[in-house]
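User: My collaborator sent over this chain with a note saying "see what the structure looks like." That's all I know about it. Can you take a look?
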Amino acid sequence: MNRTGKTTFFIVLFLAAAVFMQPLAEGSKLEEKVEKFELENGMKFLVVQRDEAPVMFGAIVMDVGSANERTNITGISHLLEHMMFKGTKMLGTKNYEAEIPYIEKTDFLGERSIELRKEMGEWRFEIFEDFSKDVISGFSVEETSEMGTDKSSQNILLVKKIRAMETLPDSIIEKDYLLEDDGTDYLEMYLEYRTAWAGVYSLLTEQRKKYIVNNELWELYQNNGARFLNAGTSYDFTLYFAYLPANRLELWMVAESDRMDTPVFREFWTERDVVMEERRLGENDPDDVLTESFYAAAFKACPYKWPIVGWMSDIRTIDRRELAQYHEMYYSPNNATAVIVGDIEVEQVKKMAVKYFEPIPAQSPVAPIETREPEQQGEIRIEIEHSANPKLMIGYHKPNYPDPEGLAFSIMIDILGAGRTSRLYKSIYEEQELTAGPPRIYTGPSERYDNLLVISAEPRHPHTLKEVEEAIYVELEKIKEELVTEREIERIKNSINANMVRSIGSNLGIAFQLLMGEIYYGDYTEMFRMIDKMKMVKAEEIRAAAKKYLTKKNRVVAHRVQVKEEGEESGDAEQNLMKKYQQDVIRFIKSLPKQEQMEIGKKYESMRSEKEMMEFGKELFERAKAAGYIKEKGE
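Assistant: Without extra context I'll predict from the sequence alone. Here is the result:
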């Protein structure tokens, strides 16, 4: 559940692969070592036997990601990933049957709260919420101490105090159509909403005390020597994985088949709050704000136009029944591929797969995504205002493999931005010193559907966004007009060989390569065909692709311009310092366990004064600095 964005997810995988580097014997070919079989229910297995160490890496990739979503349920794939760690009918409970009434009652109250919020209208709800914060801030020390962190008691007391008010504040009374319209009492509706949530929290507290065994799946794995137990959601797929001792193969089979077949989405309503807090962190992260706005502007039709975590307005209206339906549709064995690499025997894997996974019934096949991005008819430019440092993103729509022009882009991107000898590094960063760090060039946001060549850079003071942008265009014009050198192409082709050797040097790296081949190309062997074809790309093909696609008409540009908040220059120096490093503090918070992130969000929301918020901000700033996320000038 370590989900802080697609990029982080892949970095984690590759770093882990590097840690467990054990190169294959010279001359051996991975393809010859892969055993592929399919169960009667359609679930595919890829198995590679490697006896270098008595360990195994097991992963299951579900062929569903945020690209499979639609309006109203964006973020549901990521939310489902969270819920898949909440146990099953067998794990995470002392008595599943006894839990059912609690789940049904919380669902009723949670769904009612969604209905009430919709009926109120979001504008009324937000005003009532601000009013409630004022009321809560007026709770006495004794009341606050007695309640502690009990949200049920807090909601009950809030409702009681509002009902007891003889006169409401002028800001509430004087707002037209707020309290009542056409005979509907909207304040009463809001109080019912708060009462419903008091019931949800109360039921969940009782359910946890009586029946829930917290984190039993995690503890089962960890008590049996698991490492890298985690999951991640991307635009195109959702992956669950773990490193285990090889003699725990059957444990992995039992646990993973169980949560595919009989997951119980217990604690749904509070876990949804965790995901909403993740969304809030993203909304306060200047890089996330820029990137989300950039992709939303770049795509009209492609489902990469919304973020993996989803939009807040959708997350807060998803209920547990919708989640269960989504799971039933996409988490079927015929929509799953498992890969197991390590000191295991293929026949043993087949026998266990038939025993544990084959009884799970297949579902109707999911219709493939056929929507394609139409040709862009002119340059798109957007500007985002933020207190963070300026930043630039440039994107060009481009073809994907197996289109041969997609291969040309793979080489072109490395020539422009891979390593210290790349063109953008040498020219923009090293020679002209225009940027704070080397410009990044990559394909985004993902690889399966229509995507972009993306260049991002942060100007180095006193240089401007315009200067950096124009300098980048100069380099792109060169690659459009002049043939790249054979030496450059040879360097990239050599790096392709080296990267492949590194990527298949560990159980995790092998598994990742096989799974990506299956997901993106329908067959793991196509990953190797693609690499062979990349080595055949010629300089003329790179220039032709650049001329065709690196045009103004096909371009999307986003600027994040720095704006100073009112009073910033003359304000408190300490506060300004924290604002300067706000992005780094957010990165630190995102690195923390999900539960701690949630606690930070709750603590912040409970703050009663600006002074409390400032003190808490200083505490987080110092923690981020101690953890190495902040380095002030001179350090």
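A starting point for your reply to your collaborator: The mean pLDDT is 90.
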